[in-house]
Amino acid sequence: MARSIIIDTCVFISALRSRNGASFKLLSLIDSNKFTYNLSVPLVLEYEAVAKRISRSIGLTHSDIDGIINYLCTMGRHRQVHYLWRPNLKDPGDDFVLELAVESESDYIVTHNLRDFSNISKFNIKAITPKELLQIIGELS
């Protein structure tokens, strides 16, 4: 059974910064059918804004960023959130990620900021790191 996930912006940015880590490995598996990747317009807009803000420092052009995001949009399951669960998290800027996870009935929010999502078990969603997800799907021993 494929797991349903949300990839937090910090994981996306980490994958852009380095090809050596679990975040990059996770993004390289987007088309593998090992998990279902859910996204929304607000999440894509955040990916784009943060990535383009740091593009020079990571050696990518805005066009490179657009291409990567377009690929993610092609591979992801597009979701539209019709209700809000706010406020729920310590950082209100993360609420839209949780709302997407609830709407898409995701199993996991994949993030490096586990503390930011510490209060989500009541939604039957777990925050895990990219490395933990890779272990769950059998891509890392």
What's a quick, concise take on this entry?
This protein has six helices and five strands, in the order E-H-H-E-H-H-E-H-E-E-H.
Characterize the structure shown:
By secondary structure, the protein is an alpha/beta fold. The protein is globular, with a radius of gyration of 14 Å. The protein has one domain: 5'-nuclease (Rossmann fold, 3-Layer(aba) Sandwich). Helix 1 packs across helix 2, helix 1 packs parallel to helix 3 and helix 3 packs antiparallel against helix 4.
How many separate domains make up the residues? Answer: 1
- Judged by helices, strands and strand pairing, the structural class is alpha/beta
Low-confidence stretches: none
- Tally the beta strands: 5
The CATH topology is Rossmann fold
Shape: globular
What's the arrangement of strands in the largest beta sheet?
3-2-1-4-5
CATH uppermost class:
Alpha Beta
Radius of gyration: 14 Å
Q: How much beta, percentage-wise?
A: 5-15%
- Element-by-element helix/strand order: EHHEHHEHEEH
CATH architecture assignment name? 3-Layer(aba) Sandwich
Query: Which homologous superfamily in CATH is the superfamily?
Result: 5'-nuclease
Tell me, rounded to a whole number, the average pLDDT.
Answer: 92
Main sheet summary: 5 strands, parallel
**Distance between termini?**
19 Å
The level of helicity is: 40-55%
